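A reminder before we start the practical. When you read a complex entry, don't treat the lines as separate problems. The point of joint prediction is that each chain is placed relative to the others, so the output describes one connected object in space. Small molecules and nucleic acid strands, if listed, are placed in the same frame. In the example below there are two entries. Take a minute to note the order of the lines before looking further.
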Amino acid sequence: MDISFDLLINAIVAGLLLGGFYAAVTAGISISFGMLDIVNIAHPGFVILGSYLAYFININLGVDPILVSIFMLPVFYALGALIYQVYHVSFEKRGQDALRGLAFFFGLLFVTEVSLILVFGVDYRYVEASYIGPSIHLGIIDLPLRMLVPCVAALALFGLIELFITRTFTGRAIMAVSQDQLALQLQAADPIKIKRIAFGLSIAVAAVAGALLIIIQPVEPSVGREYIGRVFAICVLGGLGSMPGTLIAAMLLGVVESLTATFYGPSWAPAVAFGFLLLTLAFRPAGLLGR
Amino acid sequence: MNTAKFSLIMAAIGVVITLIAHAVGVDYLYFASYTILQFIVLATAWNILGGYCGYVNFGSAAFFALGAYSSVFIHKMFPLPLPLLIVIGAVVSGVVGLGMGYLTLRLRGSFFAIATLALAVVLQTLVVNWDFVGGSRGAYIIRPEYLEIGSFKIPYIEYLFILMLALAIIALVTARTIERSQLGFGFATIRDDELAAEACGVPTLKLKLIATTLSGAFMGMAGAPFPYYIGYLQPQSAFGLEYAVNSIAMPMIGGTTSWIGPLVGAILLGTAQQYATVTISSAVNLLIVGLMLVGFVIIAPNGIVGLVQERLRRKRS
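Here is the predicted structure of the whole assembly.
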């Protein structure tokens, strides 16, 4: 019984660490899908792009992956703003965002994945950093640093986004645009500009999430697909755009996945997210902390 | 042109194609055109839901693989003739489509799209963990050299080709019939304004469920003969992203509002890919498909058919 108790505690701790990381990956989706109602299914593609940039610079220049991702923030922000502009002009303005907008993002996801395959091949890639490998032992609990560091970084990032959204003018404008675009317009704020900033931010966050991902596990171009189900499950379960809800949902999914992987085998873990998604959609589509 | 007349013409075209292919008698021709026909079925099936109702299904690969794996399963239990397997594949995929639709179609449109994406991942997980159908190792199906019924004997690949040709014709006739029926008009109201349709008394949920079931069933049909075609079925190939991408890209590039669009798109992209796979590489040709999809939805939202229609209209006026 003792051994399985150890196992259980460790699985839960590992799940919480994983959940923290999931929160970082989902933060971008919570902004774009939850607040702006843009179904950016290409988001995991940008996360993987972030992973590969972190990998490329880490291997060639020896820079810490998280540091790389912080330098990448403006680049990804600009990319996000550009994508939003194209999306807005081509689909949102014409009222075609439902069908063609989705196909557009699907195409982007696919193009990103295939381009990465063409440039880097399908081999798994990983980064080198001092905190990959050692663990901290607290009694019966093992805390591998390669999980702990990303989790802490993710939570810090998550806190910053929450602060930005609730405390700054632009952040509040983003909340406002998600509630009533017309009302915002009547206050003489430009909703398109606000949305562009918000979408840029969501893609910028993907750069950091990507760097964290490649610390946690080796990455190959198609890994992103596994995250589509996950991030949307978390986002929907968290209540579409509610940041605290997203964090709770991410932790919950992390723990359940970790328990599944420990007791039934890791090959079953990807199915958990889908189960979550379907159950949420069927029974509580507003999510845990939904409005 | 009414449906009966159209079906007859399509059947006649089918017979002519079969005879020409038989006269040429090159195996590669069968292999290549089987793939293109398979894409015609997939693209048409996708378009029944995507083009007519405006609901995006990203999980075409999942429905396709469901058909393929139900064939593998039954092949291992008690071998049945292929046409029966196709019917079974259609039923399995149709039922899954119905279930998915029932759970997600009552909500916002984007939820359905996301759920279909996730469905592909989960079904792949199930198949990878299910040893009876080969698990992650894959399953071998030995394709007989010939199909013999009494004294009648044709190469098996020709048989597969004829079956797929028949499926493509059935899919096209169905799509065209829907387009011109009350069902099709119902679908169009959902695509244009679901709320208004609902308010006018259109049973939107019921219509959407019909569309998902039909669309899923056709994808399952396209997948059912696949294990016999490929000989060695592996989760990676059955759930390949190229099915999901192509079945979206083909209608989008061809044009989503009529049955001609997916047909044009599938023939064009299918042929180009067959050519590019042989001459360049399969990764590059997938990149081209992706870029074309993105380009077309931005520049020509109504696809090739839309471009042609616009040109004709301009000429007339």
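Discuss with your neighbour: Chain A has a mean pLDDT of 84. What might explain this?
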